[in-house]
């Protein structure tokens, strides 16, 4: 099997306020692991959980150490669409997503509604980032090592 056909294991992370449904949403879908993907999750019946996402986003960019923070593409997920007491409209969420360059999805872990799409998009996006950072177009692994600035040119060996 050449490198191009090797299965790739990626890891995914969902962040958001407590109780928005991160575990429920994840459990509905997979046990697989993905990398380079962050789903920002909020509860469509909680304005606070939506407002908190900007902080979660900043926190992830610092703590999550993505390879390319300036071009990291988030996926925003509004959960609990089965409930009627909605506080965050789809268009409001969509507007913020446009500002930060994220893709927006909504669904319900409880009603098992629209659970797959965000994960499939996340997997596709994660794979793209994985390829961009670790594979050349030929499919061969490319390991790069950037020296700290102060040690550059200090030794030619
Ligand atoms: N109505 C409704 N309730 C949901 C939905 N998803 C999750 N819940 C409920 O919301 C509560 C919190 O769900 P969790 O999945 O535990 O939330 P979490 O984000 O993982 O919470 P923490 O682990 O505390 O951070 C539970 O009581 C779930 O049953 C949904 O789509 N609709
Ligand atoms: Mg949980």
The coarse silhouette is globular
Instruction: Provide the low-confidence segments as ranges.
Output: 140-157
CATH architecture: 3-Layer(aba) Sandwich
Give the strand tally.
Answer: 4
State which percent range the strand residues make up.
5-15%
- Biggest sheet statistics: 4 strands, parallel
> How confident overall, as mean pLDDT?
79
Describe the structure concisely for a colleague.
This protein is an alpha/beta fold. The chain has helices at residues 22-29, 47-51, 53-63, 90-100, 116-134; strands at residues 12-15, 37-43, 75-79, 103-106. It starts with 11 loop residues before the first strand and ends in a 23-residue tail after the last helix.
Structure notes:
By secondary structure, the protein is of the alpha/beta class. The protein has helices at residues 22-29, 47-51, 53-63, 90-100, 116-134; strands spanning 12-15, 37-43, 75-79, 103-106. Strands 1-2-3-4 form a 4-stranded parallel β-sheet, sandwiched between helices. The radius of gyration is 18 Å and the shape is globular. Residues 140-157 have low confidence and may be disordered. Guanosine-5'-triphosphate (GTP) is lined by residues 18-24, 79-80, 82-83, 108-110.
